[in-house]
Amino acid sequence: MKKILLLISIFITLISQAQATKWSDLFSYNNVLVIREDGDRIIAATENGIFYYYPGTGEIKKLSKANGLHEVKISAFDYNAETQTGIVGYQSGSLDVITPNGIFMVVDIPLATGYNGSKNINHISINGDKAIISSGYGLSIFNVSRREFGDTAFFAVGGVYQAVNAAVLKDNVVYAATDAGLKYHEVNSTFPVYSSWANFQSGAFKKVDANAVIAFASNNQVKYGTGTTFSTIPRTFTNIQDVKVTNNQIIVSDESQVYVYGTNGIQQKNFNAGELINTALVYNTALFTGTKVSGMYNEQKSSFKPDGPYNNRSYKLSLLNNQIWVSSGNRDADPIATPSKPNEQKIGYYHYDGTKWNYPQFFVSNSTILFNILDVVPDPSDPTTVYFTNFFANGPAPAEKGVYKMQNNEFVKRYNFNNGSAYYYRPVGLTFDEQNNLFCSVQCTIPALSGNCSVSSFYLFNKAADAFGADPFTTFNIGGVQKPLTKDGIIYIPAPFFSDGGLLMYDYNNTAASTSDDKFKVLKTTNNLPINGTSSVSVDNNDDVWIGNGEGLRILSSPKSAILEENPQTDPIVIEENGLAEELFRDAKILQIVVDSGNQKWISVDGGGVFYITPNGDRTIYHFTKSNSSLPNNSVTDIKIDEKTGKVYFATTDGIVVYQGDVSEVTSNFGNVLVYPNPVVYAQYKGNVRIRGLAQKTNIRITDAAGNLVHSAVANGGYFEWNLNNQRGVRVASGIYYVLMTNEDGTDKATAKIAVVN
What we know:
By secondary structure, the chain is an all-beta fold. The protein contains 3 helices and 69 strands.
């Protein structure tokens, strides 16, 4: 029988200004793209944010999508110290204008009719109140104070567009570095007409900058000068990354070295960073270098950056005792190395040990093994011991794929899964059950003979023997699999690529080492699962199994009983709105489902952000997307909840953000009851007041100072929201209000006061 949940009005709670303070980022600030100076501080732009370093005090502050910026994937940046204005350019083509009065997003970047190429902002150069914005279609003049675009020159001939790699404005003339030469044009009425642009220098140029002189660079040469007379710096560089011109210097960032020249071309300084770099800047005679993986270096190679993971690429998370482990892999396919990211296949896992982020030396020094780490988990009984899966199927079996064991972030051992089996297995996900048994889900790479393989299974780890079993548990023809979940002696393994539903439920009856009493069931379309594979699963506090499919959501009650049934049926959640019944999340690909201690559910939808819904799914409490929250993108690959703090961690391929949730360690009694915001000043905040730290079921009475009842309610799930209306639906007057609370059986009580200022 289907569960019909009546809903008069589904509402999505608006993201308020107060919620902005509830977000924080766990972004990587290692890859420094641009460095600028501003009085007593240095500004460094990285992939997902900006940080400010104060050399005089050593203080570091950061700015990201969690506290002001509107996007991630920064591709260009410039700053004007005189006007205290910075402009951030993104791969999406949008801009953020950072001013003393706030941060303003600009999305109306000019695009030519029919242009369907990259919108990436390649370069930004500010000169007074004008900024030159370079992109794949050409360049635009941006009025900084009005925050609007002016003239745009589309570099196109016969419908073929020429990208501008960098451009600067000097003496009312714009110089543009392209692969087809250094172009120039005065800012006048014919500026937008590409055919009127002149070729200043022939060749392919990556960079151009101007101040006392103009300097422009190809891949391995730098030319400089004024007017039409130019000299070549007498050095053949390896792979020029950046050229910066000041009043008296030309700073050239090569592949791993920085060269500083006077404007006469005489070398003044050379610095070997010892690793790949992007840019450099001389600040008060001291050289600072922007590296690709170590933040910002000074000449003593001290690193300056906000603490964070090694890289932004994230897939799965593990939390334990204030520690975090992050896998960096990709479930759809092995990461493909590209010329712009030659080391992407070697990225390992990242570990926060409670005080700082670590990147194991095993990955830094490894020059041969290619990694696609889909999961990393600590041993709950000994968090210094960590296991991770390498899904990469490189070379002949067994190659480097397998489960790796680490001790204190040092490599110990690798376990393969071809142990006498007819198949070679690629490990996918790991999980420890309540008895500290470690399971690993695996899928077939190739059979012993040629052909396709749809076999998947799981292995049990034998700690005493320090080995996984010689053979997997029963094999199943369900295609590829996902990370397993265990609860109450049942292991659940989603099959995301199975065309016939796809959820394995295997009851090992809390006797993992013995298979004599085991039972299992594979849920398929005959069990009312949608056809397009199962990608996620979670078991809630009522022992209901929430199944996320490629085409929607299903619920199965009493899993132990269902395994024994011949044909158990899963149910959709059906809501009724405006007299019409509708299936919740119909046709949506569910990526992850997580249950908090109040039995509310966090559900991520591929391309649709994250939904926070009530225990039975009849109401959406929050809907976070890239547009209305700090999420880096709308496809969240993992969600983890720290029950002690209420923090919710969201992993995406573009980085990790954290939301301070309202629910933490919900029990039948009260926790630390907190009201926020408090006081509630209408001029500053117009949202609901939240009360957290409540019991699982709480009876609430709100009275005014005279003891008159203003509002009453029953709250489930550990928290409550009050819209500041009385029982007649009218906003209450300014004053002090008392919140009187009891748990379900009246054995525990709590009180709170709320100050309201209208």
